[in-house]
TrEMBL record:
<dbReference type="GO" id="GO:0005829">
    <property type="term" value="C:cytosol"/>
</dbReference>
<dbReference type="InterPro" id="IPR022496">
    <property type="entry name" value="T6A_TsaB"/>
</dbReference>
<dbReference type="GO" id="GO:0002949">
    <property type="term" value="P:tRNA threonylcarbamoyladenosine modification"/>
</dbReference>
<keyword id="KW-0819">tRNA processing</keyword>
<feature type="domain" description="Gcp-like">
    <location>
        <begin position="30"/>
        <end position="223"/>
    </location>
</feature>
<dbReference type="InterPro" id="IPR043129">
    <property type="entry name" value="ATPase_NBD"/>
</dbReference>
<dbReference type="InterPro" id="IPR000905">
    <property type="entry name" value="Gcp-like_dom"/>
</dbReference>
<dbReference type="GO" id="GO:0016740">
    <property type="term" value="F:transferase activity"/>
</dbReference>
<keyword id="KW-0808">Transferase</keyword>
<comment type="similarity">
    <text>Belongs to the KAE1 / TsaD family. TsaB subfamily.</text>
</comment>
<keyword id="KW-0963">Cytoplasm</keyword>
<protein>
    <recommendedName>
        <fullName>tRNA threonylcarbamoyladenosine biosynthesis protein TsaB</fullName>
    </recommendedName>
</protein>
<dbReference type="Pfam" id="PF00814">
    <property type="entry name" value="TsaD"/>
</dbReference>
Length: 233
C-alpha cells in the first residue's frame, strides 16, 4: 500500500511535521517549546510544497495524541483537526511514547525500549515497548504516569536490555539509579513526526482511523490539570 500520510506533533518540546508518500519522506523538526503555534503550519506548507501535493491528495492525517505537555497536546490535536476537517481526511492518533520507541529503533536499532517523559510533579509518563517482526510495536504493560520511585519498587530485572529514551531519565536520574532493569543509554529524547507517520501506516492498513469529531488526546493525568504550576507547561 503506497500511503500518503501527513503527521504532526507538538506534544513535547519538539515541533515536528512529516509527510510520507510511499517510501519517500519529507520532514521538519525543531526544538521550539514556546513556538509551536508559530512554526507548525509553515512546516506543513513546506513539506506539502516539497512533495508537490495538497492536503486533498492525502490518505490520512496522523497526530501525536500524547501523553506530553497538556498545552502541546491540545495545540497539536487542534491544528490536526482543522487540517483534516478542511480536507475531509480521516485521522490517526499515535502515542507519543510509541513514537519515541520507533525513533529509538530508527536511530539505534533498539527493539526493547523503555520510554520515560518528564511529566513534572515528580512523575514520568512511562511505557515499555517491544518491536515485532513486521515493524510494529507492542506495549509491555500499559502506558501510565507514575513516580520513578514506584517503578524502582515494582520493576524487576528481566532477560532483556532496555534502551532508555525520553526526557524523564535525565530529569529523575537519581531516582532511576536503583532501577533493576538492564538498560543502555541513548540520545533519543523526543518523538518525531516521521515515526508517527511510520506507525500510522500500520493503523491505516488495518482501517483504524477516526473521524475528526472522534479524535481525542491522551493525557494520562487529565484529572489533575489544576495542580499544574504556572509556566510549567
Amino acid at each position: 500500500m503506497s500511503a500518503k500520510i501527513l503527521a504532526i506533533d507538538t506534544a513535547t518540546e519538539m515541533c515536528s511535521v512529516a509527510l510520507m508518500v510511499g517510501d519517500t519522506l519529507y520532514s521538519r523538526n525543531e526544538i521550539a517549546p514556546r513556538d509551536h503555534t508559530k512554526k507548525i503550519l509553515p512546516m506543513v506548507d513546506e513539506v506539502l510544497k516539497e512533495a508537490g501535493i495538497s492536503l486533498q491528495d492525502l490518505d490520512a492525517l496522523a497526530y501525536g495524541q500524547g501523553p506530553g505537555s497538556f498545552t502541546g497536546v491540545r495545540i497539536g490535536i487542534g491544528i490536526a483537526q482543522g487540517l483534516a476537517l478542511g480536507a475531509d481526511l480521516p485521522m490517526i492518533g499515535i502515542s507519543t511514547l510509541a513514537a519515541i520507541a520507533q525513533n529509538a529503533y530508527r536511530q539505534t536499532g533498539a527493539t526493547h525500549v523503555a520510554t520515560a517523559i518528564d511529566a513534572r510533579m515528580s512523575e514520568v509518563y512511562w511505557a515499555q515497548y517491544q518491536r515485532q517482526q513486521d515493524g510494529s510495536w507492542i506495549t509491555i504493560g500499559e502506558e501510565c504516569v507514575v513516580p520513578p520511585s514506584d517503578l524502582v519498587a515494582h520493576l524487576g530485572q528481566d532477560e532483556f536490555t532496555w534502551a532508555q529514551v525520553g526526557t524523564g531519565w535525565q530529569a529523575y536520574a537519581q531516582d532511576f539509579a536503583e532501577l533493576a532493569l538492564n538498560r543502555i543509554e541513548t540520545p533519543v529524547l523526543y518523538p518525531e513526526s516521521q515515526d508517527i507517520a511510520f506507525l500510522a501506516k500500520f493503523e491505516l492498513e488495518k482501517g483504524n482511523t477516526v473521524a475528526v469529531e472522534d479524535s481525542s488526546p491522551v493525557y494520562l493525568r487529565d484529572t489533575v490539570t489544576w495542580k499544574k504550576l504556572p509556566g510549567r507547561e
